[in-house]
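step=encode ok
step=design start
structure_in=
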C-alpha cells in the first residue's frame, strides 16, 4: 500500500479539505453550488464547470455547439455526452452538426 500525499487546505470560505493534486477546487463549496435541477445537475462537477466556464448554462446555448466542440473543453469527457444528448432531445433540441 502506498502512502497518500494529500495536503490539508482551507478555501476562501473557511472549509478545510484534503487534496492530493494541485486542483484548487474546494469539494464543500462545489457541492454547495451544484444545481438541484436542470441539465447541469446531471453532470459531474468538472463537466459542469467546463460548460459554465464557457458560458453555456442553458440547453439553447448548448445546442449552438457540436459534440466535437464540447469535448474539447477541459473537464468534459465522453461519458457526459449521452446525458447532454438526452437533455437536448427532451427539450426538442440537438447538438449542432
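sequence_out=
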Amino acid at each position: 500500500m502506498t502512502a497518500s500525499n494529500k495536503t490539508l487546505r482551507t478555501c476562501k470560505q473557511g472549509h478545510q479539505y484534503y487534496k492530493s493534486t494541485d486542483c484548487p477546487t474546494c469539494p464543500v463549496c462545489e457541492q454547495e453550488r451544484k444545481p438541484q435541477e436542470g441539465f447541469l445537475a446531471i453532470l459531474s462537477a468538472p463537466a459542469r464547470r467546463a460548460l459554465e466556464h464557457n458560458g453555456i448554462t442553458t440547453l439553447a446555448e448548448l445546442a449552438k455547439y457540436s459534440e466535437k466542440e464540447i469535448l474539447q473543453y477541459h473537464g468534459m469527457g465522453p461519458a457526459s455526452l449521452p446525458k447532454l444528448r438526452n437533455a437536448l432531445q427532451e427539450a426538442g433540441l440537438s447538438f449542432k452538426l
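step=design ok
step=annotate ok -> Residues 37-97 form a domain with the DNA polymerase; domain 1 fold (CATH 1.10.150.20).
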